[in-house]
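Help!! Second protein's tokens look totally different from the first
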Amino acid sequence: MRLLAFSAALALSLSTASAAMAQGSEAFYKGKTIDLIIGYPPGGSNDVYARLLTQHMGKHIPGNPTIVARNMPGAGSFLAANQVANLSPKDGLVLGLGAPTLALDEKLGTPGVRYKTSQLNWVGRASPLVNIVMIWKSVAVKTIPEAQKTEVTLAGTGAGSTVSIYPSVMNNLLATKFKLIMGYRGSNEAMLAMERGETEGHSTAWEALKTAHPDWVKNKDVSIPVQFSLKRIAELPDVPTALEFAKTDEQKRVLEAILAASEVGTAFFTTPGVPADRLETLRRAFDSTMKDPEFLADAEKVRVGIDPLKGEDLQKLIMQVSDLPADLTEKVRAAYQQN
């Protein structure tokens, strides 16, 4: 009887606390604007995910604030991450979206990093982010063994972006001959360069290719020799992962550490120091958005997949990357050197 009474009292207490938190959040967020800072230029798959969120998440936040997307590309999304970590107000009115390798870049001391991923408050992941290499149909190289023998030029963007990181890792670990031509402003511009013949290929998110040029795979305008993920995804069952080309246990360990970023994926965060009740509000609103039928219908229209991860679980995943052992960190650092 006492246990039942205690359980009832606890449930009532939690319910009361939840209602009070909702009322407090509604009073704070009503009439406010949340800035969503996107570390990429307009038009790519990351931008598509972010703008979908701006259209739907506000109605799941008590007070229904407006969410405004603000693109801040540069330095492989480090500019946006640095902005959110160091300069943005710590009041729950700022969200950010950056590269899934942010934690690994911090661990390796990549130039330009001025944030602490463990201090960022992670709100949730919309989907894993699997990168691929695509090569234009007129190029003779179609497979990784062929790319280990013959140079292939790839259009590149920021030095800290997975667009350049993953091909460089392949070169350093697996002796491919990808040559990055840097300076393109986002994957849309890079894909246009490939189509024009300025370069022979491009490495980007599978979602970016699906969103911008869904016909290219169907019409065999491009070949896809590799996907950068821990296991083959359902949409690319015949495309090998980079991990499948590892020849030694050490290569496998290094690749697994780097490819963990695919699990971080399209992940949204807010500033350090956000009040706990507002972080809770943002996380639960994100979770509700990921289940919203209207959001899911809009995601299907623009051809992006939704496979969410709660903010609490995402925070743990980020900490696993941050806690990479010292010996493995040095091996990853050597593989991470960009050509």
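Here's the second one for comparison:
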Amino acid sequence: MVSARPYGRRRVVTETRTQQLIPSSVLGMLLFVVVEIMLFAGFISAFSIVKASAIVWPPPDQPRLPLEETALNTVALLASGVLLFLARRSFRKNPVGARKPLLASMALGAFFVIFQGVEWLRLIQEGLTLTSSNLGSFFYMIIGVHALHAVAALILLTYVWWQLQQGRLRSSLLAAAEVFWYFVAGVWPVLYVTVYL
């Protein structure tokens, strides 16, 4: 905001700057995450209605979802979020110190995505497909959309890593990537409990 004050015959112009509470990139990512939460809430609602109206669930002719293996994968994804938090703390003190926890977070995230892909291939071979049952349709739709988010978040984290390596990483970019990754990691346990159990 610019204000003018009379000073004798001359006018002195002073400028007042407002400080940003939340960087634009973080605010934009938060808004995106809110929309995505609504998307997943719609998926979960539809899945719950279909599951509650079924006489037998899961369908008897369909393979069972791998609970134990996916539980391990869930731990890897949650640990990835913890490592990203540690990377942020290290970045504040010494940006170079953020490299190892950030790289470890990305590695666990990649493990999660690859493991989910292996799981999908095994389930397809066992007969669970998009058209085999309501379980198959919802499983691939809900878990697939989450997988797309995980891949997109990994791409963003890779960009963050590259910026860090170049010595050009801005705190706001790291914070925006954190918001996205925490969403991916945070929504997964809800999906695991809803779809797998």
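Reply: Different proteins will give different token patterns, so don't panic. The two ends are 56 Å apart (CA to CA).
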